[in-house]
Amino acid sequence: MCRSSLQSNVISDSVKCYSKIHDYHFILVRDSDYIACNHKDKFFRRHCITAQILPKYDAVMFLDADIGVVNPKRKIEEFLSDEIDVVLYYRFYNWEIAAGSYIVKNTPYALEFLKEWADYESKLPKSFHGTDNGAIHLLLAEKIFTSSDVELEMCRKVYNISKWYDDLFTYEACIKNMFGSGTDFGKIRIMKKGTGWTRDCWLTSCQWHPETDFMLHGWKSGQLKETPVNKTRPNQMSRIQWYNPFLGPMDLLRCNPENTTWSYNLNLLGSKFEITNSLRKYEEEIAMMQAKSYARIVNLLEPNKNTTEKPK
């Protein structure tokens, strides 16, 4: 497991303990140790670093520094397939492909993919491009579809003129429309919303359930808040705060394959039905937002055109 940067002990220790339980090699990465990766943008640089580390292992799960483990009984192998070399996932709260966590196998294809992603820094448009998160969408589309694809070029035009988040999200909706409901594209898998290994903690006020959750995202050390004394409801909360699901600090000396019982704050251990139902309702809202965002393409590319004009 490859992790970028350093966060609070709660977050880091959950991943360290989990790694010891399953005999995974945990690596806390500092980009200053990898001088060969001289990308200016730290977000692109991290994928170069993963490519430097990958040849030493069968596979690497990259985790951003604000992702923690809540369910140590789940295994990374659940997300590996013989025919797939790169595993990504869609974020839950919108329609973008996550850049902060992925799984890559030690294959020439995956290594080349990481290098292409890192080097996309030099191909960014002079627009509001979203760094590596924006770039991954166009990179994937270019690898999966032909460069002469009309729809791909339309998405590229939106990306090139993006001025703010609304435009960036429209570009991502354009790419998502190309992918449709598919998940597997050759050696690349893009897991559907809610089926990956992590989701944002704030989506359910940090409530979780062992049958639905493995890791949670958004655990930034400076945003940790005191857990409510009463049980929370699985509804959306502020995106810039989170609650600690554990009752106390982890004793890393006790982390081993025979000890997968962690001490949880039961106020955050929710009902599977209520959590699933809440997420489902939010997913329906996001689907409508995605459709509206995609519909902005005409106004972005042809702002002076009369949209009420009937096609000839």
UniProtKB/TrEMBL annotation:
It comes from the Eukaryota. Gene3D superfamilies: Spore Coat Polysaccharide Biosynthesis Protein SpsA, Chain A. Pfam families: DUF273. This is Nucleotide-diphospho-sugar transferase domain-containing protein. It comes from Caenorhabditis remanei. The lineage of its organism: Eukaryota, Metazoa, Ecdysozoa, Nematoda, Chromadorea.
